[in-house]
Design brief:
The chain folds into 2 domains: 22-119 and 222-276, 3-Layer(aba) Sandwich (D-Maltodextrin-Binding Protein, domain 2); 121-216, Periplasmic binding protein-like II (D-Maltodextrin-Binding Protein, domain 2), CATH 3.40.190.10. The chain is 29% helix and 26% strand. The protein is built from 8 helices and 15 strands. It has a 7-stranded mixed beta sheet. The protein has a 5-stranded mixed beta sheet with strand order 10-9-11-8-12, sandwiched between helices. Strands 2-3-4 form a 3-stranded antiparallel beta sheet, with helices on one face. Strand 2 (42-43) and strand 3 form a beta hairpin. The chain is globular.
Length: 280
């Protein structure tokens, strides 16, 4: 399993009024009896479709269903592209997003995150090029791909400035791809030397495609991923956080993380926008 350095917990402690319960939900959600959750099922093992049945599965799906069970409501999963998520949250078309979304400061102008795991951005290359790119600085001057819909291209550029250019090495050439699948396709075609994506996905991919990929160094970032919802939707935020706390206390959360071999990426407390929170 991958190791991660601890993410700094910023700020102080704040109190929620109560644990999650159905009566604490916003009136519109209680009336509907369901949560509408945005999801992009192309990011295993967090979310993907069974190729035989097209059934949604993955860590985020299990976690969303468990939270809904605590709240006593149903879930309606709404499949959409990454670019549609923020407008859908802002306009109320969906209630929240649970789809491997990083809790980044740049997203907090309009959204708030109930963090549910810690991850990082990880370089990887072809299995047969592992010795050529044994450490991350071997990628200086090379083409490295990442989904242009994500924060990963900017992460590559920032890392390159510090670890390549500032050290007198040539910069990494960042290649924006049409998603992580396209990045892997370009990697297999030798159009790029390496790719970058969330470390939580790579053990699963390496298990599904043995002797295909190799990790390059350690993750270059450490970041929380969370359940995103509208910034001003305090009641729903607190209800989701309370449900997650209950799942942690009873061990269900830890079991879900372990089921998908991501127990080392679990958080040990309720986190809101990367800050630890206390509940009564």
């Amino acid at each position: 399993m991958l190791g991660f350095k601890a993410v700094n917990i910023l700020g102080g402690m704040a109190m929620f009024c109560s644990l999650a319960a159905a009566q604490d939900l916003p009136e519109n959600i209680k009336k509907a009896g369901s949560l509408v959750i945005a999801n992009m099922p192309n990011y295993p093992p967090l979310e993907f479709k069974d190729p035989r049945t097209s059934t949604l599965q993955g860590l985020d799906i299990d976690l969303g269903n468990a939270i809904a069970g605590k709240l006593g409501i149903r879930i309606r999963w709404s499949e959409m592209s990454f670019e549609q998520v923020v407008p859908a949250i802002s306009t109320g078309r969906v209630d929240l997003v649970l789809s491997g979304m990083s809790d980044l400061p740049s997203r907090r102008d309009t959204m708030v995150f109930v963090d549910c795991m810690v991850s990082g951005a990880q370089f990887y290359t072809n299995h047969d090029r592992a010795s050529q790119f044994s450490k991350a600085t071997d990628l200086c001057g090379q083409k490295v791909g990442a989904s242009r819909r994500s924060a990963f291209p900017a992460e590559i550029d920032r890392w390159s400035k510090v670890h390549c250019e500032a050290q007198g090495r040539p910069a990494i050439e960042v290649i924006g791809t049409e998603g992580s699948v396209d990045a892997r396709t370009q990697l297999k075609q030798r159009r790029i030397a390496a790719a970058l994506q969330g470390a939580e996905t790579l053990p699963y991919l390496m298990q599904m495609e043995p002797n295909t990929y190799a990790l390059v160094g350690a993750p270059i970032t450490s970041v929380y991923q969370g359940i995103g919802l509208a910034k001003d939707n305090v009641a729903l935020r607190d209800a989701i956080a309370g449900a997650l706390k209950q799942l942690m206390e009873e061990g269900t959360y830890q079991s879900i993380m372990a089921k998908w071999n991501l127990g080392n990426m679990a958080v040990d407390r309720v986190m809101i926008n990367s800050e630890a929170r206390a509940t009564n």
